[in-house]
Amino acid sequence: MSGASGRRPPRRIEALLARAASRTAIRDCVIEDLREEYADRESRWGRTRSVAWYVWTSMSIALRLMFRGDAVQEDSRGRRESGMGALAQDLKYGARGLRRSPGFTTVAAMTLAIGVAATVSMFAAVDGILLAPLPYASPESLYRIDTNTGGEGWYGSSVPEYFDLAERIGAFEAIASYTGSDVTMGDTLTPQRVRGVRATASLLPLLGVEPLMGRYFTPGEDAPATGRVVVLSHSLWVEAYGGRPDIIGSFIPLFGQPYEVVGVMPEGFAFPDGDTRAWFPMGLTPTSDLRNNHYLAVVGRLRDGATEEAARAQLDALVARSRESYPAIYSERGYRIRLRSLHESVVGDVRVPVLVAMGAVVLVLLIACVNVANLFLTRGEARKRELATRTALGASRGRLVRQLLVESLLLSVFAGAIGIGLSWVLVKAMVVLAPPSIPRLDTVSMSGATIALAFGIVGVAGMAFGALPALTVAHRAAGLAGAGRGALSTRAGGRVRRALVISQVAFAGMLAIATGLMLRTMHNLRAVEAGFDARGVLTFAVSPSATRYPEAAQRVAFWSELTERLRALPGVVDAGATTAVPLSNLYDNLSIRVEGRVTTSIGDAPDGRVQRITPEFFSALGLRLVRGRVFTEADRAGSLPVVIVSETFASRFWPGQDPIGRKVKVFAESRPWMEVVGEVADLKHDRLDVEAQPMWYVPIAQAAITAYNMPAQMYAFVRTSGSMPEMVRRSREVVHAMDPTAPVWRVRELQSIVEESVAGRTFTLDLLQAFGLLALFLACVGVYGVTMLSVSERKGEIGLRKALGARAPAILRLIAQENAMTVGIGAGLGILGGIAVTRLMAGLFFGVSAADPRTIAGSLGVLCLTAVVAAVVPAVRALRVEAAAALRGDA
Amino acid sequence: MAPGAQLGELEYLIMLAVLRLEGEGSAVEIRELLKKKANRAVSRGTLYATLDRLVRKSYVTFATEDTVPAGGGVAKRLFALTAAGRKAVARSSRAIARLSEGLTLP
User: Fold this and answer.
1) HSE-up of A342 (CA within 13 Å, CB side)?
2) Cα distance from A99 to chain B (closest Cα, Å)?
3) Which of A114, A383, A660, A798, by CA, is between 20 and 30 Å from A761?
4) Structure confidence at residue A658 (pLDDT)
5) Measured between CB atoms, does B6 come within 8 Å of chain A?
6) Three-state DSSP state, A723
7) Which residues contact A744 (CB under 8 A, 6 or more apart)?
8) A387 close to A400: Cβ distance less than 8 angstroms
């Protein structure tokens, strides 16, 4: 052997081995032998593999030395063991006992491991998503401030409202606002769109996170017409600029202008979400926008010592004052401000789905534990004789109980180790597979708390499994006589087992009901008409550069030409463009005037979501025309202003009447009236389960006049009969040929946008289905086990009945009766539990009530069918019992 | 351990191996010899546990060779039989011989 003394095994492992071998006479021999062999292997294998070998080998030696096989003999010869020795002996007995029944050990350990893995990984998700504090300084004093000045839901503030908040609410130490703003970065060669945020200078200091390099932008830079400065995210800095340290102070092209990079945020900083990659000033002044244009998200940090109540009181006072000062804005529709912790606003929407998944997992764990407990009970019965013998030979009851406990703990630890390994894999998978609709899922990991929970489960489960048989067995172990009579059933043990199975069926029933309701929900959601035909439609966003296309008319020409060129591509059925993607909830919602309706103030004006479109938009999207006509090339800038309205729009403002020829305009007096020329089917503007809202469409050629503006960025919709990747490539070529500085981005298939809009629920459903199936399977195993046992215990009785002339149906009835009781009671409890639990998740359901009788009946049908299947094999076995053999007692 | 107690089979085989190596055998060599001559694959852990037991029973002694190889290697650790060990091996061998005498083994 090459004795290269430089190659030493890992010191800690070696120290552990030395401790394990400390009570042997040959400790030095073991250590030195292994050290020498390690050096030899490392010279041949390299370090990693040799260390793995060393860890494995030294662990197996250590175990062998601690639980030496000869200890039994020595003990039986009366050698006194110390306390440690007794424990070691118990461990050794336990390990040996588990080894001796590999079937039991494998099934019990795997069942428990699956339960632990599911629970621990789901808890990691709960911990990372719901419990972990937000990654900002003192996150508990951060709040989000939402506004409602009419209409549904909560939204942001307007600029003047923001300044009111910033100046008048003393309970806040700082207030900041921001709004998402996508930006084109780069030059003509590699333009790319980047998700950015325009923010006030107060935002980043308010969050209390220091930049990795450089600084935030200053209030001086956060003024109109100044401040071409930007703070980059760590990822953008690394990806686009190779992590260059000299980036600070250099200029990068944004919006076609040079922007000075003043700071880089540290890795992991995310605000408002992980996709945001640049922050720049928005240069607000109190008069820079209208009081009823609500687009600013507002966050605030509570002053030290100030309470939430104080802040609320100040907000209420502000609301009251504003309503007095601006009756035209607030008098009719009101003004409300909501204060919510930032944490709540980030995770509030996913709390229920995540907790539902956690609940499902806990049920699975419980069912798994019941199975393992049953296994232990059965095994305890089978070992009555052994334990009674040992009692008779003088083993104390305490010693026996302790041994049983050690055995079950050993099994639990083993299962726990497998479970932790499994959950580590599951957590990784979850991070990769989860939909983006669940916030913070990308930061989930196996935290200390998670590992602690795993140990907790393992410990409690281990004690409980051991305690069950330990108490019943040790109680009865007093005499050999009882045990000697063998497999005669004990009524008490049977009752405990049956109660366990009842609980199992009940848990599985609860899960089955929740899963059934979720299945119905998805079915209902998929049946909802989105209003358009999403198949074969490609969409992407294009922003023609502001320097090349500064005027609205130029942008209209750009988009007309672009859709023209797209339509000319081979395989294209139709192509159009609009300002927002369906289901995105990103439409401009404008206050309007409807001819014939008196509107005194903007506060009581109706509103509708507007889309500025090219004439082919409806056919490209497959949106049905109800009556009238679609736009044509004749609807130009100078021609009669026209509008097309949605069905909901028409029925809300002209119920039961023909909308064609009616007149509508935006709220501002200076804008012209538009004539309704067509009515189209509703389009879902938000999630599929949200009612369609009134929507109106204007041709892009007139948008700058009739809908205030003609935005630069629009979305192209291309309906194609060809392949998608080919279409994407050709579309890029077309755009590049027209404007090489205009990036093509947000390239999506419309179908995937539809899928994504239900992704949060799909995730919940997938989890529930997986756990529901697992629960059914485990419950099935439980029913099977307890029926099998009951059959084998009642062999004598069955044999006697057969001998007395009972036929197969009578025997089956016997088995069925017993099972029907168990499953019936379990299912009944399951219904009660299911109704109670699903009520908590009512918000997740769509088109089905939490107590839907059909779903409950269906779920229980599946459950009972499973129970019947589980009982088939034991029933067949009962039929095979031979009367004579059973009566002899040796069957 | 009462004198005259019978050796376990593995103990017996290991002591034969130690005897065959004439006091020059290390644990590694003992293990290789068992594999080669007796076709017995013994895990390291089992071997050490048994050797430890035999040392405790005073059948086997364990010593480190005095001379450390030049160049900084490690000293060899060698096992040898004690007088009691030799007696025990002889006793077991005789018992086996007597019992198998005249038997036709497959």
Assistant:
1) 25
2) 16
3) A114
4) 92
5) no
6) coil
7) A540, A541, A542, A731, A732, A735, A736
8) yes
What are B16-54's pLDDT values in tens digits? Answer: 999 998 878 888 889 999 999 888 888 888 899 899 889
How large is the C-alpha radius of gyration of chain B? Answer: 15
Under an 8 A CB cutoff, do B53 and A70 touch? Answer: yes
Could you report the per-residue pLDDT of A728-777, keeping only the tens digit for each? Answer: 899 999 998 998 888 888 888 888 888 877 776 777 778 788 888 888 88
CB contact under 8 A, A26 and B74: no
What's the gap in Å between the CA of A60 and the closest CA on chain B? 6
Query: For residues A188 and A741, is the Cβ–Cβ distance under 8 A?
Result: yes
Determine whether the interchain pair B62/A26 forms a contact, defined as Cβ–Cβ distance below 8 Å. yes
pLDDT in tens, A666-725: 888 888 999 999 999 998 877 777 788 889 999 999 998 898 888 888 999 999 988 888
pLDDT of B73 strictly over 60: no
Q: Mutate which of B14, B48, B56 to test chain A, going by most A C-beta atoms within 10 A? A: B48
| Residue ranges in chain A whose pLDDT is less than 50 | 1-5, 69-82, 474, 477-489, 891
Contact (CB, 8 A) for A589 and A727: no
Q: Which residue does chain B place closest to A17, by CA atoms?
A: B45
The 3-state DSSP class for residue A642 equals: strand
Closest C-alpha among A438, A368, A341 to residue A116: A368
Q: Considering CB atoms only, which of A26, A32, A63 is closest to B45?
A: A63
Q: Which residues contact A238 (CB under 8 A, 6 or more apart)?
A: none
Q: Which residues of A touch B48 (CB under 8 A)?
A: 21, 24, 26, 29-30, 61, 64-65
Residue B74 to residue A28, Cβ atoms within 8 A:
no
- How many other C-beta atoms can be found within 10 angstroms of the C-beta atom of residue A239? 12
How close does chain A come to B44, measured CA to CA in Å?
6
Per the CB < 8 Å rule, is A33 touching B53? Answer: no
What is the number of other CB atoms lying within 10 angstroms of the CB of residue A570? 10
Nearest CA-CA partner of A256 in A741, A746, A743: A741
Is this model's pTM higher than 0.90 or not?
no
DSSP symbols for A666-692:
ESSTTSPPEEEEEEE-----S-TTSPP
- Which among B27, B52, B73 has the least Cβ separation from residue A33? B27
Structure-block tokens of residue A521: 């929900």
B3/A contact by beta carbon, under 8 A: no
Give the DSSP letter of residue B43.
-
Cross-chain residue pair B49–A69, CB shorter than 8 Å: yes
Residue A263 pairs in a beta bridge with A214, A231
For residue B31, which residues of chain A lie inside 8 Å, CB to CB? none
Q: Do B48 and A69 make contact, defined as CB atoms within 8 angstroms?
A: no
Q: What pLDDT shows up at residue A480?
A: 44
**A114 CB-side CA count, 13 A:** 19
Q: Give the contacts of A123 (CB within 8 A, at least 6 positions apart).
A: A358, A449, A450, A453
Looking at A846-882, list the stretches that DSSP marks H as alpha helix, in order from N- to C-terminal side: 853-880
> Which of A25, A32, A65 has its CB closest to that of B45?
A65
Q: Helices A448-476 & A384-392, crossing angle to 10 degrees?
A: 70
Quote the CA–CA distance of A556 and A541 in Å, as a whole number.
15
Inter-chain CB proximity B49 and A26 less than 8 Å:
no
Query: In this structure, how many other beta carbons lie within 10 angstroms of the beta carbon of residue A555?
Result: 24
Instruction: Note the pLDDT of residue A538.
Output: 92
Classify residue A152 as exposed, middle or buried by CB count within 10 Å of its CB (0-12, 13-18, 19+): exposed
Cα separation of A121 and A441, whole Å?
A: 12
Pairwise CB contact (< 8 Å): B48 & A64: yes
